[in-house]
Each structure stands twice: as C-alpha cells, then as structure tokens.
TrEMBL record:
<dbReference type="Pfam" id="PF13302">
    <property type="entry name" value="Acetyltransf_3"/>
</dbReference>
<dbReference type="InterPro" id="IPR016181">
    <property type="entry name" value="Acyl_CoA_acyltransferase"/>
</dbReference>
<protein>
    <submittedName>
        <fullName>Putative acetyltransferase, GNAT family</fullName>
    </submittedName>
</protein>
<dbReference type="GO" id="GO:0016747">
    <property type="term" value="F:acyltransferase activity, transferring groups other than amino-acyl groups"/>
</dbReference>
<keyword id="KW-0808">Transferase</keyword>
<dbReference type="InterPro" id="IPR051531">
    <property type="entry name" value="N-acetyltransferase"/>
</dbReference>
<dbReference type="InterPro" id="IPR000182">
    <property type="entry name" value="GNAT_dom"/>
</dbReference>
<feature type="domain" description="N-acetyltransferase">
    <location>
        <begin position="16"/>
        <end position="189"/>
    </location>
</feature>
Length: 248
C-alpha cells in the first residue's frame, strides 16, 4: 500500500485560525508585498511589483511540496486576514534540490493593521509548537539582519540562542546588510525543557500548568538558495522577516 502523504493541517490559537495557503489567498499576500509599510525592512526596502508579488505567492505555496508537513499558513481572526506564517525547507549542503526533513526555518508577514497586538507572536508560538510537537522536528532556526535589533531582542527574550553571524553578497543589498546577518536556533530538547520549566514556575505560583505553546517566536529569513532562478531576484536577507515594530 502506498504511503499517505502528509498535508498541512488547519491550526488554531486563542485568536487565530491558520489555514494552508492556497490560490485564494493571493490577493492578501500581494497586498502585503506591495505595501510600503510592510516592505520597508524587507527585501529591496521597497514594495514589490505586481509580478514580483505573484511570484512570491507561488513560491510560498510551493513550500508545502518540499517536505511533508511544511508549508505556509494564512492567518485569520474573526474572518479577517491577519498575515501568513511559514515553516520552510532548508536545502541540504550536498544538493540544493533536496531538503532536510528534521528541521525547518520559520518566517512570517503580518498586516500593519494588526501590528502591536501580539498576533505575530501568537502565530509564531503555534508554528513552533507544531514543528516540535506535531512534526517531531529537531530544530527550528531563524535569521535576520544584524541591525534588526527588534527581531533579535524578541528571539533572545524567548530563549533563542545566537549561533552565528555571517556575511553574504547580494545584487540588491538592503540598507544595513553591510553589518551582516545573524542566525538563531532552538532545539527540540531546549523547547521542551522550557515548557517544563515554565510549568514548574506556574505550579509554584499555584496558578496551574500553562498549556502549550510557550512564548517562543522566530522572526526569520528563509534559506533561499534553492529558489528557482527565475524568481531569485526577489530574494534578499529579509524577504521573510516581519516588517514593522516588534512588540511582545
């Protein structure tokens, strides 16, 4: 009997319904990519053209075909589109057309209307919970520009560890890239240990054990070396980094 391929489930949090990204969401993702506020600290530092935004949406949908369980989710609250969240593939060192199946890189984009309301973190917590609990992955990583202090502060405050600073060359470098990029990481063991520690603290305070997920969040750039050449011009260090104020 042929193995049944896993598909993305619909995920839910207190306020968000996260559904697998499809063609019906293209208008929403394009609106984000063509919004000057959203794109101020993303990619070229300018809004994408319509053609660029269409190609990015196609790529986001394609992530679901890379590794079973991975993909992009569109988030809604009370029926209104909030943004998208992604568990994306990491190509192997040996072959950029093949992907690691035990770890992922996380990213998201949130509509300015919902900035500062905790939706970015809420969706992120569910993504990371899904990665470790449901998919059994061993690591979730996140990358951002060195100068993106807000994203770095959020990752650090959530227990993520800075593991590397690196420098790449890009044909259309965004402002600040000359100071490099940073990679943060959290392992499955670290995440579950944090849950146990938090539950213990809650128990000590006699307020009960807090249910998963915890306050972990990644604001990351995908490793996009495997992106098809015809859309590689869209790729830069912050294409998948949340733009705008990051407020815990």
């Amino acid at each position: 009997m042929a193995a049944i391929e896993k598909v993305q489930p619909t995920l839910r949090t207190a306020r968000l319904e996260l559904v697998p990204l499809g063609p019906e969401h293209r208008e929403h993702t394009m609106k984000l990519d063509m919004d000057p506020k959203v794109m101020k600290q993303v990619a070229f530092g300018r809004p994408f053209t319509e053609d660029e935004a269409i190609q990015v949406h196609t790529w986001l949908m394609g992530c679901a075909k890379s590794v079973p369980g991975f993909g992009t989710w569109a988030g809604y609250t009370n029926g209104e589109f909030v943004g998208w969240w992604i568990l994306g593939p990491i190509p192997t060192k040996e072959n950029p057309e093949q992907f690691l199946t035990d770890r992922t890189e996380y990213g998201f984009r949130v509509s300015p209307k919902f900035w500062g309301q905790g939706f970015a973190k809420e969706g992120a917590r569910e993504m990371i919970r899904h990665a470790f609990v449901d998919l059994g992955l061993v690591e979730v990583i996140g990358e951002t520009m060195t100068v993106n202090t807000a994203s770095r502060a959020v990752m650090a405050s959530c227990g993520l560890k800075h593991v590397e600073t690196f420098f790449n060359t890009y044909p259309t470098p965004p402002p600040g890239i000359e100071e490099g990029e940073v990679r943060y990481s959290i392992s499955r063991e670290e995440w579950f240990a944090a849950q146990a520690a938090e539950a213990s603290r809650d128990s000590d305070k006699k307020i009960g054990t807090r249910a998963l997920p915890s306050d972990f969040v990644y604001t990351s750039r995908m490793n996009l070396d495997h992106v098809p050449a015809d859309i590689s011009f869209l790729v830069s260090p912050t294409i998948l980094v949340h733009a705008g104020p990051v407020i815990p």
